Amino acid sequence: MKLGCIADDFTGATDLANNLVRAGMRVMQTFGVPQAALSSDVDAVVVALKSRTIPAKEAVAQSLEALQWLQAQGAEQIYFKYCSTFDSTPAGNIGPVTEALMDALDCPFTIATPAFPDNGRTVFKGYLFAGAVLLNESGMQNHPLTPMTDANLVRVLQAQTQRKVGLIDHTVMAKGSAAISEKIKQLQADGVGVAIVDATSNEDLKTLGPALKNMPLVTAGSGVAIGLPANWNLQASASAAALPKASGYQAIVSGSCSIATQGQVAHYQSLGLPSWQFKPLSWSTHDVPAQIRTQVAQALAWAQPLLGKGPVLIYATTDADTLQQVQAKLGREQAGEWMESALAQVSVGLLQLGVKQWVIAGGETSGACVQALAISQMQIGPQIDPGVPWCYAPQHAAGHLTLKSGNFGTPDFFSKALKLLSETCT
Fold first, then answer.
1. Per-residue pLDDT, 175
2. What span, in angstroms and rounded, lies between the C-alpha atoms of 352 and 421?
3. How confident is the model at residue 111, as a pLDDT?
């Protein structure tokens, strides 16, 4: 194994794996830390954790366990992957996990950048932009679990770490890989342990790649991945993304309330395709789990006669105002946990009904569904949209899946994804 990766959520892991495959690496993604060596011959493994929003101490423990397994498989470099929106809290978990991995690897310096220009995430003068606006003006300031009210990444990361945080800015990036390497030496001499890196284009990320060749630990979103495979003389190859033939029924399970996913649900419905929505505002606060079981049964009974005719959508996606009302009624964290439970139960029922082609929207939703389905690993296939590939669960009845981060994908993502699968995996 050349590259060993630790991702803090399931869709983020797939996002990273997608970019590695596009750059020529054969990649397997696991859910949780495997209990044994993988049988597949791959260049990189992405260990997907569900650690973004759990207590920092638990996130650190899980990440160190993943590190130990990757080291035992011979990984030459470690990559800690977080979201391209860098969303976290002042307590972590990006900073604490980064420091723990640095300590374990005896790594005196590393970089940090969530830049992913293909999806509109760019870093300039240390500030993170989502499209044309600063992160804290993009809707992320309203995130239900990790609201981001500051776009200054140096400031955000410094609040989470004991190490001094610095910046490799756009003027250095423009001078090339050698200049970046020199800047890293200067920052280390100045006592900096972690440096935010500006990147406004894929060329910036490819320029960064050679400067990271001998760095034991890289921390980033998925964008930096496009510049790393070349360090092992690997090049893009269609064979790296080949998947088996697709079969079975099609279903979309959507839990994200991001603006992008709201648009995708609306587009799907505009095509006149069938959809069923969970409406937690209708729940009483007494015995919610029983009400969830009842609604799950209703959703599956609705879906069963429709599956043979084409894709069905079962969703909890809603607008920001309704989400706030749900959180006020049920409690912020409890509302999220209950909706994850509902969609996870739906996924188990859909599998029993014969679904083998899955579009799952939302990081927390993807994590809950994959865990409920007991999928342990996935082979990474062709890209649908930047950061979102089709995948295949070997030796599992679930078949083909795409796990979409809430903010990713074009408005027609749901229908486009299923169309691509039918064209490429036949």
1. 98
2. 21
3. 98
Q: How far apart, in whole angstroms, are the C-alpha atoms of residue 256 and residue 390?
A: 19
Quote the CA–CA distance of 277 and 299 in Å, as a whole number. 8
Q: Determine the average pLDDT of the residues in 9-32.
A: 91
Q: What residues does each domain of the chain span?
A: 3-237, 242-424
Q: Which residues pair with 357 in a beta bridge?
A: 250, 400
**What Cα–Cα distance (Å) separates residue 356 from each residue in 76, 115, 307, 340?**
35, 33, 11, 20
* pLDDT tens, residue by residue, 97-128: 999 999 999 999 999 999 999 989 999 999 99
What pLDDT, in 10s, does the model give residues 136-187?
Answer: 998 888 887 788 889 999 999 999 999 999 999 999 999 999 999 999 999 9
SS3 397: coil
Establish whether domains 3-237 and 242-424 are of one fold.
Answer: no
The fold of the 242-424 domain, in CATH, is Molybdenum Cofactor Biosythetic Enzyme; Chain A (3.40.980)
Q: Of how many residues is the chain composed?
A: 426
Contact of 98 with 161, CB cutoff 8 Å = yes
Q: Minimal CA–CA distance to 223: which of 212, 211, 209, 213? A: 209
CATH number of 3-237: 3.40.50.10840
Task: Render 263-299 in DSSP notation, one character per residue.
Answer: HHHHHHHHTT--EEE--GGG--SSSHHHHHHHHHHHH
Whether residue 36 is predicted with pLDDT greater than 90 in this model: the reply is no
